[in-house]
Amino acid sequence: MISRFHGQGATEYLVLLAVVLIIALVSIALLGFFPGMATDTRIAQSAAYWNSAYPFAIKSHMMNAAAASGKLVVQNMDSTGSNQVTALSVGGSAATVTGSPVAFAPGETKTLAITAGIPTCGASGATYDYQVVFTYTNAAGISGFKQNGTKTLTGKCS
Q1: Are the beta carbons of 95 and 67 closer than 8 angstroms?
Q2: 67: helix, coil or strand?
Q3: Cβ atoms within 10 A of the Cβ of 138, count?
Q4: Which residues contact 122 (CB under 8 A, 6 or more apart)?
Q5: 14 Cβ partners below 8 Å, 6+ apart?
Q6: pTM score, two decimals?
Q7: CB 157 within 8 A of CB 63
Q8: Residue 146: what pLDDT?
């Protein structure tokens, strides 16, 4: 009677292992077949980071597909005093910002119009990833501070 059930535990183990492997392969395949989901996740993570960055938060952004231009809605998150953006680097290039330098009162939000100096982001709907660096003068009047984003600014070209 004992010999009838010989090896049953090993068989059950192998069947469970096969089920787990199939579930893992299906999960990996689904992630690979829907690359748009990965892009949307990167955009959401970038927005979450830049929405609360300090001292300058990027509340929204738009990059033009045809020209090396765009707009950034920037807020001064420093409540202790006014900061002044003296230079902006987007995608490793010095961006030309209309009205630069731009002074921000504590908590103030302004739209920075970038007219030149950034890489073109490709066709309309293409994804861009730009490293953003703000150079600014702080509330005490000390210039040359840099805010390097730890995440890239990610979005879709318009």
Answers
A1: no
A2: coil
A3: 16
A4: 65, 128, 157
A5: none
A6: 0.75
A7: yes
A8: 96
